[in-house]
Request: fold
Amino acid sequence: MDNTTHSPYPPVGEPSPAGQSFPAAPGTAGPGPGGPGQPNFGKPVGNPDAGKGLAITALVIGVVSLLLCWIPFVNNLVFVLGLIGLGFAIPALIISVKNHSRSKGMSIAALILVVLSLVGVLATQAFYGKVIDDAVESMEEGADGVVESSEKEKEASSGEAASLGTAAEVGDYSVTVSAVNTNAGELIAAVNPYNEAPQGQYVLVDLAVQYSGDGEGNPWIDLQTKFIGADARQYDPSTCSVVLEKQEYDVPTLEKGGVAEYQVCMDVPAEALADAKIFVEPTFTLDDDDRAYWTAQ
Reply:
């Protein structure tokens, strides 16, 4: 009996009989782009971790940039950081796509975060720039002690105002506008012969205050008084550089319950005196609702 095992494949080095085909031998590559022992059925094979390090770096930069892009001054550095993040995110995405890497999603997320942070920097820079420009414009406009009333201020001042001699709560003070003299030029000239004549008319305002705070009160620092003319402009005491009988900065520091009287004056055009009002507000406030208004007559 012949126990020799016959292989279906021709001996190595010998050609197969003409017209006869044989299945691929085990351990050899079949049709397709795969290598020996890699039957991948025509699907491309890449490195599943390609670009992962770049993607992680870009993702970290994107997260940090997005968190800091809203902070003034700091976001100047964030813009540079965002550009660096782009330098990591874009190559990471290209490499992950070419190699069918699992880091593709991470690369896309990193790219989105970096772009959002750059947009955030530009948006906040534009916003802060406008705020600064408005503040500078306001300071320049008020350098002479005269500013235009905003629409909100016009609406607030058009409401009912207290009559002279009526007390109102302003911050830590009970404030009373005792009297308003809209033509106080002669009276002020009599106080000091060196007082200059007004460009318009001197408006002299007499105030009485009582401090109700828990610390110390200095009304000439804590409160500011302004005149609203018929021209919808606000005039503050910096328009009037004269010596008064009751200077506000001569008022001593007040303890709780302490009272004081003082005067302030403004130089106001004569045509702005009709239907005018006085308002007093805390010096350090951003809320127009903290004001109290009085009629000027």
Q: What stands out?
A: The beta strands are 146-148, 167-170, 173-181, 201-211, 223-228, 233-235, 259-268, 277-282, 292-295. Residues 148-295 form a domain with the Immunoglobulin-like fold (CATH 2.60.40.1240). The chain has six helices and nine strands.
